[in-house]
Design a protein that fits this description.
single chain, alpha/beta, TIM Barrel, eight-stranded parallel β-sheet, four-stranded antiparallel β-sheet, 34% helix, globular, binds (4S)-2,6-dioxohexahydropyrimidine-4-carboxylic acid, binds zinc ion
Amino acid sequence: MSTSLTRLEMIQPDDWHLHIRDGEVMRDVLVDTARQFARAIVMPNLKPPVTTVDLANAYRERIEQQLKALGVSTFTPLMTLYLTNNTSAAEVLKAKAADVVAFKLYPAGATTNSDAGVSDLKFCHATLEAMQSVGMPLLVHGEVTDPEVDIFDREAVFIDQVLEPLRKNFPELKIVFEHITTKQAAHYVRDAQTGGKNILGATITPQHLLMNRNAIFTGGIRPHHYCLPVLKREEHRLALLEVATSGNPRFFLGTDSAPHAKGAKEAACGCAGCYSAFNALGLYAEAFESVGKLDRLEGFASFFGPDFYHLPRNTQKIVLVKSPQNIPAELPLGDATIVPLRAGETIAWSLA
Ligand code: DOR
Ligand code: ZN
């Protein structure tokens, strides 16, 4: 990778946590992701969720058809399955054979389309055993769902109540702590003992590197800055920035870009999710530049994810340039519109 103040050439990145939905919405958001990334892990929280290999294969086919219709031949979707109380060990073996790359744990009720999620991991023992034995990663939405637990504490409580026991019971299970938002999660992943094995990772979104919880309330309520896990205090943002830019291979890029139509966000009960896909790489570059660590972006964005998943690193290169780009106020989304992160503002970095 070469860096100067205004130009950054690097191996093309992948997005290790992405929501693209289905149908017309998928068509509109795929373009943004495929412009920047070579591959992306596609989250399975559709309605109904992608719970079987057959559903994942059908979803992959719809994505591939859409890519073909768009004339995109340079992007590969990586499929995941949605873990439920009833997912069988046999489905894990079938998934492994079908190039499904991971299973996603949504604690039931934790976030968008998570009602079919796991109510208690005790129902999943045989399934987790199978995942551990075939090296199938478990991607976790790391928040407890107990309404008694303060929403800003749900990730930290998840570590003690769910993640630590899970890792004790399944010490060889590959786990990605998705979209971490707290100092506790950053330090937990940084300090965990794995016997030298590459079995624990964490993804970090651009919004959690760039904003703290004040951004949800600046001058009024800002629904487009609401996502789950919710933005946290500044001390947490700084801890995330510190680990993301540290060169530690346990931390890698996952935007969690989550499209919701403008009307569903600007509502009495607005949906959770930030749409960062429009210029995600520019946002990450801004975050890394803010601490003088642009030289660490390539590892985070392009190397550590494929290494964790035992996939080849990309070989083709991209160039980011520091040249102000206007982010539109809205973008088309099926028969509606979507408000991207930084809508109506200018951002410094973008794809050449
Ligand atoms: O903000 C979020 N939006 N967090 C999630 O975990 C899910 C996502 C979505 O699918 O909209
Ligand atoms: Zn997500």
